[in-house]
Specification:
The complex is a heterodimer of chains A (331) and B (272). Chain A has 331 residues and is an all-alpha fold. Chain A is 68% helix and 2% strand. Chain A has a two-stranded antiparallel sheet with strand order 1-2. The two termini of chain A are 23 Å apart. In chain A, 48% of the residues are buried. Chain B is of the alpha/beta class. Chain B has a six-stranded mixed β-sheet with strand order 6-7-8-3-9-10, sandwiched between helices. A four-stranded antiparallel β-sheet of chain B has the order 2-1-4-5, covered by helices on one side. In chain B, strand 4 and strand 5 form a beta hairpin. The chains are: A mainly alpha (331), B alpha/beta (272). Chains A and B meet through helix 7, helix 8, helix 9 and helix 10 of A and helix 2, helix 3, helix 4, helix 5 and helix 6 of B.
Chain lengths: 331, 272
């Protein structure tokens, strides 16, 4: 019964996400672009969510996304690789960097880990500014080409983005990556990996007492987190066709946290719901843009006071039928 | 040399173990051994270095000098999870459990070492991984039943009463199938009836073939349960022997009661 419900919820969600939304916004490329951005931001936030899940507050996700973005841009513009290779390459490079950074940093707990990751975004930004032979410094890398076609044995798997409506193409690519990311996250959380991650969140010493290699698992979690950031960053940069040191800033890093908080840390879909609700509502309230940090801070404080477990902890699921029924995620 | 009561190779051997925190030697040149199937207690006044010794033996702390051998193999200053993989499992004081999981899930997670699947295997939910989870659930139920937690296994751990939490901590330790189980103050905060029950439980675990080292304050429980006792004071081992020997050891009595000659007082503290 529960399985039928999950399958029904999931297919309903996919119907809305992949058919209804693109159809509704078929003549509004700007709005479709906003929704695409929301997708990719939710994917990046999902990494932060996973770090919450092992009990670490990652305030450096913007830095990892920036690494992914620059990696893709450099691979495409300097080495002339295709976007698809660069996308995978960007994910790989971000993961490698996250492992190198994570091995020492993950020894820190609580607020110390947060503080050091907070500086990671700044580090990434400054690196992008000063490594100008590679990154063009503050000028950034402009005019990135659109993703080309993918053909297998003469059969066109993915068309050249320049030959079709690129807004649709990016929307579907973003949605595909996001679905893939969240499906992976769902598997992680609902397998023994999820149990292990939850045990790390609650007590690392106890976990190691029965043989869990805690340092290794922490690095794996950070690598997954960074993979999401790297892929998301590479996609975002390609969509914008440019990357600057300020493409992902410290502010973005904190927004990713807020998206997770808002959606809820107990449910896999928390990052998705949080990102869409908050990002889209802000897009609708354009006039408030200059107050965005203020309002986000107030929402953050309000959430902690009145809704510490996020929107998804509210019982009647009023986010529309599109949202798959959440598993009663064991926090 | 310390007399060793066993002829075969000891299960764990601690040799000249020292741990310094700055200038303070919390554990100072301690040597002892535990034989397979033994229940060995480590006692001592507050600040004697019991907890530090406990953490050194379970690899939760790195030693300054000295060695720890397990089945003849040098395991000094390994990572705790490596020690667990070799068969040395510790429990924690008080309420160190996974509070948000049910009692059963606490123990199921703790079966980790028996997983045959790899991390990708978990992710893709291979047949092996799924079979393992089924087996773990059965085994966890059995352990909980054995420790008298069968009725509360589906309760969230944070809602369990105090006595059950201690047993749950031991159940988590048992799940890893230890050869050597280190118990950190298993009888603390228990009344005499609960202590008697807990003593039966610990003996039962030993009878299942698990060697036990415990650190404890409750003197009557220690005298009751131990095969041998190691006494620490100011980081040094001051005595080792059977409960009867320890109770009549002048040095031990002095450490606990100070240098005084009122023999009635000391007997009521150290005798069961």
């Amino acid at each position: 019964m529960a399985k039928v419900k999950t399958a029904l919820g999931a297919s309903l969600f996919l119907l809305v996400y992949l058919v209804l939304i693109p159809w509704l916004f078929r003549d509004q490329p700007y709005r479709l672009g906003v929704l695409t951005t929301a997708s990719v931001l939710s994917l990046i936030s999902a990494g932060v969510w996973l770090m919450f899940y092992i009990g670490r507050i990652n305030m450096g996700q913007g830095g990892f996304a920036l690494v992914g973005g620059y990696a893709a841009a450099i691979l495409v513009s300097k080495l002339g690789l295709s976007f698809w290779v660069a996308l995978i390459g960007a994910g790989f490079i971000t993961v490698v960097i996250s492992i190198l950074v994570g091995l020492p940093l993950l020894r820190l707990k609580g607020v110390y880990f947060s503080m050091i990751t907070l500086s990671l975004t700044e580090t990434a930004r400054l690196a992008a500014q000063s490594l100008s032979s590679l990154t063009n410094g503050t000028k950034g890398i402009l005019n990135l080409p659109l993703p080309g076609a993918v053909e297998i044995a003469g059969f066109t798997l993915i068309p050249d983005f320049a030959s079709v409506d690129k807004h649709f193409a990016f929307y579907f690519l973003g949605a595909f990556l996001t679905i893939l990311g969240f499906a992976a996250l769902y598997r992680v959380v609902n397998s023994r990996l999820g149990w292990l991650f939850r045990s790390l969140q609650q007590n690392e010493d106890l976990a190691s007492s029965f043989g869990v290699d805690v340092p290794r698992l922490r690095v794996i979690a950070l690598a997954i987190c960074a993979l999401f950031a790297g892929i998301g960053g590479a996609f975002f940069v390609t969509m914008q066709q440019s990357v600057y040191p300020a493409t992902f800033t410290f502010q973005d890093s904190t927004y990713f946290l807020l998206y997770c908080f808002l959606g809820g840390l107990g449910s896999v879909w928390g990052a998705f719901v949080g990102t869409f609700v908050l990002f889209l509502s802000f897009e609708m309230l354009q006039g408030l843009n200059q107050y965005q940090p203020l309002i986000y801070s107030l929402i953050m404080i309000g959430m902690m006071l009145w809704l510490p477990n996020g929107l998804l902890s509210i019982k009647p699921p009023f986010f529309g039928p599109g949202e798959p029924k959440k598993e009663e995620a064991r926090p | 040399m310390t007399p060793m009561p066993m002829t075969s190779m000891p299960l764990m051997e601690v040799k000249n173990l020292t741990k310094r925190f700055g200038g303070l030697a919390a554990v100072n040149d301690v040597t002892f051994a535990v034989a397979e199937g033994e229940i060995l207690s480590v006692i001592g006044p507050n600040g004697a270095g019991k907890s530090t010794l406990f953490k050194l033996a379970s690899s939760f702390l790195a030693a300054t000098s000295g060695k720890v051998f397990f089945k003849g193999e040098d395991i000094t200053s390994q990572s705790p999870h490596i020690a667990a993989r070799k068969g040395i499992v510790r429990t924690f004081q008080e309420t160190t459990i996974f509070r948000n999981m049910t009692a059963l899930d606490n123990v199921v997670v703790a079966h980790h070492l028996r997983s045959r699947a790899s991390l990708p295997g978990f992710f893709f939910g291979t047949k092996t991984a799924r079979e393992d989870e089924g087996r773990f659930r059965e085994s966890a139920s059995e352990i909980l039943d054995y420790l008298g937690l069968g009725d509360v296994k589906d309760m969230v751990a944070s809602t369990l009463p105090h006595g059950h939490l201690r047993a749950l901590g031991i159940a988590i330790g048992m799940a890893a199938e230890p050869q050597l189980l280190l118990l950190d103050e298993p009888f603390a905060g228990m009344n005499s009836e609960e202590t008697a029950q807990a003593i039966r439980m610990v003996r039962g675990i030993r009878d299942r073939g698990v060697t036990i080292i415990l650190v404890e304050h409750d003197m009557s429980a220690v005298m009751n349960i131990s095969d041998r006792i190691v006494v620490l004071n100011f980081g040094k081992k001051i005595a080792e022997g059977t409960p009867a020997e320890i109770q009549n050891d002048e040095v031990v009595i002095e450490a606990y009661l100070g240098r005084e000659d009122e023999s009635e007082d000391r007997t009521c503290t150290l005798k069961p």
